[in-house]
Design goal:
The complex is a heterodimer. Chain A is mostly helical. Chain A has helices at 3-6, 12-31, 35-40, 46-58, 70-77, 86-99, 107-135, and strands at residues 61-63, 66-68. The longest helix of chain A is centred in the C-terminal third of the chain and has 29 residues, at 107-135. The radius of gyration of chain A is 16 Å and the shape is elongated.
């Protein structure tokens, strides 16, 4: 269901939970799925871009819990109640496409992967912003 | 180079930081407040900057900011994770209110209100990590460090972080720009001449030269000619006209070191110059206008000399005594020892001979120096960063205890020389030992240990290791929050026992005589000695001679 359509049906508590979840998606997935690619900058060589994409997609979260690829992070956080929401669907689609990308491929293939990762990041930001608009904004 | 601590539940930020700024020592990541606190403690006061994440995906029992009186709800746990960075910041501020902290957060994460509470804090910065790239990160880190160091060091001067020294720096900055003379007071070796040359003159805005005259080393009968100049025939040997220090410093700064050594007749001549703004060379009648910023230094109490009639009161008043700046002895600045050590190592490592020695050591170990050349850095136990091409001088805790506990009667000068000697000798010993570990760990040939014995020998060689000044022995008191008075008292007692043990050359009966007035109490004293955790075998080798 679309986020804006779901919002009025949620209790205050449920709304707060969804807000937190949207922020977590933005942070855990949106931030780290383009972390090294952005850091590498536009002057990076093909091999530097390849290494950055590998890190961003295959080891999106790396810490004491172990290594999580982007799709595992999404599987952990994906809000089931928002199936059908345009941004959730965009993330679904972009991550599905990313799983099929050959990270050993040529520059054009890497560019496709980078564009899909950027799409994921952008959709998480949009989802978070929409959630704050629809569910009560900043509750600091 | 700076020591920077990263507090983050993920490894990715620190990995990027290490790649983007290899010139800094990156510590961590500390995964939670307990780890951060332990690292800060291990690094003592070396850490200059903290990068702090906001979201921490960590187990419940490691979260800060949860209710103490009941089990937290799932929601509370989730929110504590999302805002953990703010809770860590609040904990950090209780012990380190002035440590710069960069919070890595993004605008629009729904944390604006929590962030706004911290935005106004002087040492808290925000980094929008959704726009993070190497250049932005480097610019922010560089800017913060530069601003901080601007008040911590000036070229060869190390001011440190204490409020007292910052106040002195601010005051000197004001005095440098004014036209009135400046008196620098303080014990020998506290950096008076460095400050006169590299700070007061540098900030005076005066285009003329800096001229220094040490009045304690000039032959008495040459002082007048040296200061005021002379004309041919003014005295035996004056074969040509000569400009004095006042004329040489015209438009600039004249620094008179050890002003208390100035004789009565010269005091009168100096007073006349200050009153008239002009000098008359010896043997001449012509006045020459001079515009000089006068800075004088002394390790004596000039006011007391005036009372005793040894220094002219009118000259003293002309020297602007109300604005006297007293530089503290090093033992009054013990909180600065760690950072001062880094500073002195950095200064010493800039010497070509030290760099050459370090290169020789690295060559013998088959190690390539850092891309920018040979880098030598001090590190503390428990905080050795991963290999980066730098040669790391490890100062173990026992070595640091010696440095912190020494009374440093020669102050900064003695400290800097001890550090340079320790650094040079440690690298030389390691280089002579040939390939293999430099003394720290078998798998880290880039780490050379500065052994406590070496430092102890250096301190013993100066003959100042256990001097008692007029006011008694100096002891170090470090008080941490939540520590009981008993612990503080024991720390002091331990230091007193150590000093007494060394003074009485390990004779417990003699110690009992001092402590109890009865040599028969040796057994009691030894018992207390043991209770305090002191070990005869540790102290025996420190007994002088």
């Amino acid at each position: 269901m679309n986020l804006e359509a779901l919002a009025p049906r949620l209790s205050e508590e449920e709304a707060e939970d969804l807000l937190d979840l949207a922020a977590d998606i933005r942070h855990d997935l949106g931030k780290y799925v383009v972390f090294e690619a952005r850091f590498a900058g536009p002057d990076a060589t093909v091999e530097e871009r390849r290494a950055a994409l590998r890190a961003d997609l295959l080891a999106t979260r790396r810490g004491p819990r172990g290594v999580e690829p982007a799709w595992a992070v999404w599987a952990r956080l994906r809000p089931a109640e928002l199936a059908g929401d345009p941004d959730v669907e965009r993330i679904d689609a972009a991550l599905a496409a990313l799983r099929g990308v050959d990270l050993d491929g040529d520059a054009a293939e890497l560019e496709r992967a980078a564009a899909l990762a950027a799409e994921v990041a952008e959709a998480t930001r949009r989802l978070d912003a929409r959630a704050r608009r629809a569910l009560g904004g900043d509750r600091g | 180079m700076a020591d920077i601590l990263v507090i983050d539940d993920q490894d990715r930020t620190i990995e990027l930081c290490r790649r983007a700024m290899p010139e800094h020592a990156w510590h961590g990541p500390a995964r939670d407040w307990d780890e951060a606190r332990a690292l800060l403690r291990a690094l003592r006061r070396r850490v200059e900057l903290v990068l702090l994440d906001i979201h921490f995906d960590i187990p419940d029992d490691r979260l800060l900011g949860l209710p103490d009186d009941r089990e937290p709800t799932e929601r509370e746990l989730r929110r504590a994770r999302r805002r953990q960075g703010f809770a860590i910041l609040e904990a950090l501020r209780r012990s380190r209110p002035d440590l710069p902290v960069v919070l890595m957060t993004s605008r629009g994460e729904g944390l604006e209100r929590a962030a706004d509470r911290h935005r106004a804090e002087e040492y808290t910065y925000f980094l929008d990590d959704e726009a993070l790239d190497a250049r932005a990160l480097r610019a922010q880190v560089g800017g913060i460090l530069e601003a901080r160091r601007g008040t911590e060091r000036d070229g060869p001067i190390y001011w440190g972080r204490s409020l007292a020294m910052r106040r002195i720096r601010r005051r000197l900055l004001t005095l440098a720009r004014g036209r009135l003379p400046v008196i620098l007071a303080g014990p020998t070796g506290t950096g008076k001449s460095l400050i006169a040359r590299h700070f007061l003159h540098a900030h005076s805005g005066r285009g003329g030269r800096f001229v220094a005259v040490d009045l304690s080393t000039l032959p008495r009968d040459l002082v007048a000619a040296h200061l005021f100049g002379s004309v041919r025939g003014a005295y035996t040997g004056a074969v040509a006209d000569r400009r004095g220090a006042f004329e040489e410093a015209d438009g600039g700064t004249l620094f008179l070191d050890e002003i208390g050594h100035l004789g009565e007749d010269l005091q009168r001549m100096l007073l006349t110059v200050l009153q008239e703004g002009a000098v008359v060379r010896l043997g001449d009648a012509r006045e020459r206008r001079v515009d000089v910023k006068l800075v004088v230094a002394t390790n004596e109490d000039l006011a007391e000399k005036v009372r005793r009639g040894e220094f002219r009161a009118d000259l003293y008043m002309r020297l602007n005594p109300a604005a006297t700046v007293r530089l503290p002895a090093l033992r009054e600045r013990r909180m600065d020892i760690e950072r001062l050590l880094d500073f002195c190592v950095e200064q010493a490592a800039a010497q070509p001979t030290v760099r050459e020695l370090a290169r020789e050591y690295l060559d013998r170990q088959g190690l390539a120096p850092s891309p920018g050349g040979v880098v030598v850095r001090a590190v503390a136990s428990g905080a050795v960063p991963p290999p980066s091409g730098a040669l790391l001088l490890l100062f173990p805790e026992r070595t640091m205890r010696l440095l912190r506990g020494h009374p440093w009667p020669g102050n900064l000068r003695e400290f800097a020389m001890t550090v340079e000697n320790a650094l040079t000798l440690s690298i030389a010993e390691a280089a002579d030992a040939g390939p293999g570990p430099g003394g720290a760990a078998a798998d880290r040939p880039d780490v050379v240990q500065v052994r406590p014995k070496l430092v102890r020998d250096l301190l013993l060689a100066t003959g100042t290791h256990a001097e008692e000044d007029a006011s008694g022995w100096a002891v170090e008191v470090r008080v941490r929050a939540h520590e009981g008075l008993n612990k503080v008292a024991q720390d002091v007692e331990r230091q007193y026992f150590t000093r007494l043990y060394l003074q009485e050359r390990g004779d417990f009966a003699a110690m009992a005589k001092v402590l109890l007035g009865d040599a028969g109490g040796a057994r009691k004293v030894q018992l207390r000695f043991n209770q305090l955790g002191l070990k005869v075998r540790d102290l025996k080798e420190r007994i002088p001679g």
